[in-house]
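Researcher: Final request for today, and then I'll write up notes for the group meeting. The sequence and the SMILES for pyridoxal-5'-phosphate follow.
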Amino acid sequence: MSEMPARLNVEQCRRQFPALEQVIDDLHPVFFDGPAGSQVPLRVIDAITTYFITMNANHGGVFATSRASDSLLDEAHLAVAELVGATDPGEIAFGANMTTLTLSLSRALARTWQPGDEVIVTHLDHDANVSPWVLAAQDAGAVVKRIAVNRADCTLDLAQFQSLLSPKTKLVAVGAASNATGTINAVAQITKLAHGVGALVFVDAVHYAPHRRIDVRRWDCDFLACSAYKFFGPHVGVLWGRRALMESLPVYKLRPSPSDLPGRWMTGTQSHEGIAGVLAAVEYLAELGRQVQPEVYERRAALDIAFDAIKTHEQTLAAEFLTGLQSLPQIELFGIGDLNRLEERVPTFAIRHNRVGPRDLAEYLDSRGVYVWNGNFYALPWTEFMGLEPDGVVRVGMLHYNTSAEVQRLLNDLNDV
Ligand SMILES: Cc1ncc(COP(=O)(O)O)c(C=O)c1O
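Model: Predicted protein-pyridoxal-5'-phosphate complex:
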């Protein structure tokens, strides 16, 4: 492998996203709304159109379009397995979104729990990785415990986590990265501790997926969910689980639907056109790696390179934003602000202005063509824990298609408020 540092050609990336070329209200918008859904490259849009024109059919037919559709779906299962660091396409289930898949998994797991069993969730997660487990625990008579957050840097309190573990712990549900503060959690360490008491580990990688290389093997987790609309694809959810568990758990399913993998987890007819788009999104990312290192073709290796390059670029943006904030004392940052700790965060920033409320600030930025979210983004467990309800925060979410010039524009706008 070459010694060349992995560098992203951001302009080449941007040219592939038609939405980034728009002029809205006479301004070139800056999309810092990515954590709620990224823009999509043309190849994803084309894949969806092509699906409809050339192979639009239901699953399992003997005729040509159904066979073509099924082989594309098979390829999508394999591509997404590679995206999450697995090898077995049967371990990947598609569904409406992460929330729906997690509710389905939680119901199946609850059927294996007894009264008095324990489940651990966190105060840093999106509610989609909390409420499904709380509801399932209620059904089974299990007890829910919560990992606290260190208020100073919005990291998980791992010492307190260890004190929650016991032989009664059946499941630990943790996010890979926070969609509010950008904190990256120590998933491998958490998994090791959880496995030490015999608990299973579910990872919500929805926010992590567009930023860093997911690796279920390195993390050694048991289940993982993510959502393609956050990683440059369409609105399709993804669930990965260890084959033995996915085969044996008592999932809620219809009688005629498949009892083998992955069909037993994929209720009803899927968005086949959406899954075609997911495959194209993974290919977009792999192609990005191939552009960075043209001698690499294999998809898995290309994805490794792509995420190295994405990380490097995103860390530059994060450093620029955090450095700029140092001259804006009116802006408060929640989360890691230390430039030496960029490895521990993705470039998602929760901020507040000392005089202007989150909604007003987001509206002001919109008037300057800078799109950010305000509120709690369903990271309600965290905003409640921090006492930030009802207004929440403003969230600035950067992705690899954002530029230093856009960061500068935001900093100028924040200064002008
Ligand atoms: C961290 C995180 N987890 C879960 C979800 C829910 O994902 P979905 O919309 O696919 O249900 C989101 C959505 O914003 C998220 O950011």
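Model: The domain at 10-39+312-416 is CATH 3.90.1150.10 (Aspartate Aminotransferase, domain 1). The pocket of pyridoxal-5'-phosphate is lined by residues 35-36, 97-99, 126, 128-129, 175, 179, 204, 206-207, 227, 237, 378 (CB under 6 Å).
Researcher: Thanks, that's everything.
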